[in-house]
Amino acid sequence: MGSSKSSCRLSIVVPVYRSAAILPELVRQVHAAMADEGWASEFELLLVNDCSPDDSWAAIRTLAHAHPFVRGISLRRNAGQHNAIMAGLRNVRGRYVVVMDDDLQHPPSEVADLIRALESGFDVCYTRYRNRQHAVWKQLGSRFNDWVATLLLSKPKNLYLSSFKAMRREIADEVVKYDGPYAYVDGLILDVTQSITSIEINHQARYEGESNYNLRRLVSLWMKMATSFSVFPLRVAIYLGFSLGILSVLMVLFIVVAKLAHPDFPEGWASLIATVLLVGGIQTLCIGMVGEYLGRTYLKINNKPQFVIGTTTWAEEEGHE
Predict the structure, then answer these.
(1) Residue 47: beta bridge partners?
(2) Between residues 293 and 11, which one has the greater pLDDT?
(3) Mind listing the pLDDT tens digit for each residue in 27-55?
């Protein structure tokens, strides 16, 4: 199967990392769900190997050889979930595009409902989870990210930015115009359209193994959101500096008045140290925030790539012809 942009009804993009044992069952369930809808010959499943250290790429190659609807992309180095999704979006051929995880917590049987929401006129459809199967700390982290997205990205308060979603092809085409090194797909979608809805689905337990997301990855995701799509953190730094300036003036006036009224007014070593530490901590935080913005700008100017494709299953097939 070549890489031409010939049209099909649906493209399903799945970033893959440490999921070699899950992929055969994922492919089976996706094909069964599409067959139930009569779409067995109208879809493609695009599996993006994010430089997984296990045998995921070998599994993808085997599945692509056995199933014409499976197409694989292998990245030369780990790019992260959202950058891997961008690699997939750049190679889709369907009129509609679904993004889902590789662990089968997102039921393939729900894909049809996502597509029907798009066919009803919406540009994008997200999912909301019933009986969420994630660990408590991850649920709390997701709630925090949701709150931050509402604050920074003007996200509707009742919209949950889940990783299981569908969009029209023209929305995907707009999203991939972003060429910065740190992609945040949901932020790009919110920049492109406000025609967004959501459906409720059952959230399943992970088919095998443990989640690849940890606290470090969640913090990294938050930083992408905060520094790639909003200057709000910089404005907070300005407000903090302005507020501390006013507080400093008030403290000086208080000390002068107190000393004049009470000559024996004691010098406060503890309060002085506390104030110095507070001001120093906030200054360091603000400098770090500015540095984060400058660092990302520097990497963008130097054309740091979102991802580097090593090979694809269709390129390998053409090479053997």
Answers:
(1) 14, 72
(2) 11
(3) 999 999 999 999 999 999 999 999 999 99
Task: Give CA–CA dist 174/241, Å, rounded.
Answer: 38
pTM of the model: 0.76
Quote the distance between the C-alpha of residue 179 and its chain's center. Answer: 15
For 151, residues 6+ apart whose C-beta sits below 8 A from its C-beta are 232
Cα–Cα distance, 161 to 5 (Å, whole number) = 28
Per CATH, the number for 9-213+304-319 is 3.90.550.10
- Interatomic CA distance for residues 273 and 279, integer angstroms: 10
Which residues 6+ apart lie within 8 Å of 31 measured at CB? 40, 45, 67, 69
Q: Which of 97, 9, 23 has its CA nearest to residue 54?
A: 23
* Consecutive H or E run containing 10: strand 8-16
Task: Tell me the sheet residues that pair with 166.
Answer: 98, 125
Q: Which residue has the tokens 């049209």?
A: 7
| List of residues 6+ apart from 186 with CB closer than 8 A | 149, 153, 161
DSSP bridge partners of 53: none
In the β-sheet with 309-312, what is the strand arrangement from edge to edge? 196-202, 124-130, 165-168, 94-99, 8-16, 43-49, 70-75, 309-312
Q: How far apart are CA 53 and CA 243, in angstroms?
A: 49
